[in-house]
Design a protein that fits this description.
single chain, 154 residues, alpha/beta, two-stranded antiparallel ribbon, 5 helices
Length: 154
């Protein structure tokens, strides 16, 4: 099923509700960490405002909230796009959010991530196991992630 949302808060609410019925949760949405503190209901004209300050507040951490309510054999998969201290940051995120494994990709890898049909990932399991994959088409990357999740269920 598909649940359409328009904001990070709506996604948070929908994910929390849907998680009760999920055996495997793939938390792949890149939700912004911050949102504007105040939302205007109309366009702000440049000519009338001059300099402006934008106040931001943290959004709800969807993965952390789902990790806290995770049940028994439910599998949670997170993602980490990293640029520095990649392994340490990805492993830390996996632990903090109670994930079964995290899929890390790096902006430092050539022909991977954004603006490419290929990606290069490394999967870190909760128990510290590391599995690195070569650069490949994103459809094959998705299959690797699902295969890894299914191996945990066995």
């Amino acid at each position: 099923s598909r649940i359409s949302v328009e904001s990070a808060q709506e996604m948070y609410q929908a994910a929390v509700e849907a998680s009760d019925h999920a055996d495997i949760e793939i938390l792949c949405a890149a939700v912004a960490d911050y949102t504007p503190a105040h939302k205007e209901d109309h366009k702000i004209k440049r000519e009338k405002t001059g300099a402006m300050q934008l106040d931001l507040v943290p959004t709800q951490d969807i993965a952390a909230a789902l990790g806290k309510k995770k049940r028994g054999k439910q599998i949670m998969i997170g993602f980490a796009l990293e640029t520095d201290n990649e392994e340490v940051n990805a492993i830390g995120k996996c632990e903090r959010k109670n994930l079964d494994f995290i899929v890390m990709n790096s902006l430092n890898d050539k022909n991977a991530c954004f603006q490419h049909d290929t990606n290069k990932i490394t999967i870190f399991d909760r128990d510290g196991k590391k599995t690195a994959f070569n650069l490949k088409p994103k459809k094959e990357v998705a299959k690797d992630i699902i295969d890894h999740a299914l191996s945990i269920l066995k």
